[in-house]
Amino acid sequence: MPAIRVLIVDDDPLVRSALSHFVSRDPEIEVIGEAITGLEAIDTVERERPDVVMMDVQMPEMNGIEATGVIAERWPDVRVLAVTTLDGSDTVLPMLNAGASGYMLKDSSADEIVTAVREVHNGASSLSPRIASMLIKHVRDSEPADSELARDLEQLTEREREVLALLSQGMSNAEIARSLIVSEGTVKAHLGRIMSKWQVRDRVQILVAAARAGLVDFR
Asked: I need a labelling partner for 28 at 20 to 30 A (CA). Which of 2, 20, 85, 155 fits?
């Protein structure tokens, strides 16, 4: 029986069809509905309570940023994964601030998108490599590295620094695990300790804190 119930929100029928095909190939993922506007997405979430909403940004009536904000406030257990062609900071940052747990570009591979759905369902954040780099660059450009913040952040172990470096490349937990030759559980434990040390809520906020402190660089 599928464990992850997904709602796909996009005003392009071809995109909805492609995303549905990609994620439905995973036997543990079930597409329980589709929506073409932010308003329709909210109505469907209220009725169906999906686990993950795959959300476009530009849509008629109500855009994805507004819809994500409503969903995050009303149903905090429902995870939102942005899946869009837009990769500018004027879109990415508002979407993440609205409550999206991940941000993937539509040119990501099918495997990357499926992995992202699984990541956000498991309570993690998922960013494509280009989005992770863009987020770090935006923070570094808008806020010069804060040496005082770097001193205030609790020091990481060598392994935690390795995990952070791979996270800054946009790697998923599974990809980090393969790179370090450890289990995904071990990676989750390292990320959990970093969040606890730095008092941040998710992987996105780990990157923001690290970028502000000058601990990761844009590549």
From this structure: 85
Whether 135 maps to a domain, the answer reads no
What's the domain count of the chain?
Answer: 2
Note whether residue 63 is domain-resident: yes
In a domain, 152, yes or no: yes
Give the mean model confidence (pLDDT) for residues 62-87: 92
123 and 185 inside one domain: no
Residues 25 and 91 in one domain: yes
| Model confidence pLDDT, tens digit, residues 28-74 | 999 999 999 999 999 999 999 999 999 999 998 899 999 999 998 99
Cβ burial, residue 194 (10 Å; 0-12/13-18/19+): buried
Are 117 and 11 part of one and the same domain? Answer: yes
pLDDT in tens, 91-111: 887 888 788 888 888 888 899
Higher pLDDT, 171 or 158: 158
Q: Tell me the mean pLDDT in the region 71-93.
A: 87
